[in-house]
Amino acid sequence: MDALIQVPYDATVRLMLSSLERNLLPDVVIRRLTRLLLASRLRWGYKPSSQLQLSDLLQFVHSLKDMPIAIKTDLPKSQHYELPTSFFKLVLGKNLKYSCCYFLDKSSTLEDAEKAMLELYCERAQIKDGQSVLDVGCGWGSLSLYIAQKFSSCRITGICNSKTQKAYIEEQCSYGWQSCIYKNHSFKPLLFLFESTYHSTSYFYKMIEVPLAHFCLVHIYNYRELKLQNVEIIVADISTFEMEASFDRILSIEMFEHMKNYKALLNKISKWMKEDSLLLVNYFCHKAFAYHFEDKNEDDWITRYFFTGGTMPAANLLLYFQDDVSVVNHWLVNGNHYARTSEEWLKRMDQNMASIKPIMESTYGKDSAVKWTAYWRTFFISVAELFGYNNGEEWMVALFLFKKKIN
């Protein structure tokens, strides 16, 4: 942008952000401004000729090979996971899948779409019972837990960068009794089923009388927890993590967008692959060009608060990094699936705002709770607008299936 235009433009953006921080911008305005920014990004990304488009992509490919595997690794972790798991339980689906879901039809719920995408991963990665599986960047374990339940003889190792995520997954893998005191006016044993407000989790309450007037002891058995013994979770920074183990299948869902040097990353991952292993990579992307998330101007809001150090790959970008792996298959998922996913997250956030407000206050402080509530809502709106742009045919999701290259 011309310097003479940039100054008043930045001033206008600052004014808009000031209004956003006070939660004064209507959603319709946020959506309109987001679409204007996306149109500007497309004008920047599309080149006048096919040769220039290819040259631009190749220049990006070569630049990545000179970078570290990841940069500013602590910032994305704090940006997304500073909020406790309780927030994401209120916003995401019951599997806590913090990535694109797959809506088979208009009637699909978020939970249906989570399951459909998890099933798609298993199908395309050719998961079979008895395999050893590595889930790189496992988040809250949506895929690890799904595979562990569906393929009970598989042995799953998940790598995440958050101790709270590890604790959540391990909690889901266990089960047991909890106890509390309940005031019982009837002095009779009671037995009933209670549906939790969180994700329709079923709890079995067994009431046992004790010699305390009007009180009894309640033992609570949580059937939602899974009693899984085939899941191990490791907390590590993937850019520096090393191990000697090898696996039959490796899957990575929306982690590559946080990385830079794909040559070094795929070399690292290939060392964990057996000779007949398969690697499934899922990342969001633009169909034609790639770019870095950089905080250069006032309107680089998403980068500043949610995606520092991130990358927007092109749909075919990994095809240029086949030094240690060879592509077996390559698929695209229309961006409307991600747009609808994020719209569902936004809707759940709005529906659960009474419960979310104290979480925001305890995390960011009362003085900043309104601002960060607006930021998170705007983040979900921006994701929906990004992937819904041009009917989902600009930004989308790519899946790659690789085999190990044997020299």
UniProtKB/TrEMBL annotation:
GO biological process terms on file: methylation
Pfam family, one: CMAS
InterPro entries assigned: SAM-dependent_MTases_sf
Any one Gene Ontology molecular-function term assigned to this protein's record: methyltransferase activity
Keyword entries, A-Z: Methyltransferase, S-adenosyl-L-methionine, Transferase
Entry similarity comment: Belongs to the CFA/CMAS family.
PANTHER family: PTHR43832, S-ADENOSYL-L-METHIONINE-DEPENDENT METHYLTRANSFERASES SUPERFAMILY PROTEIN
Protein's name in the database: Coclaurine-N-methyltransferase 3
Provenance organism: Nelumbo nucifera
Gene from which the chain derives: CNMT
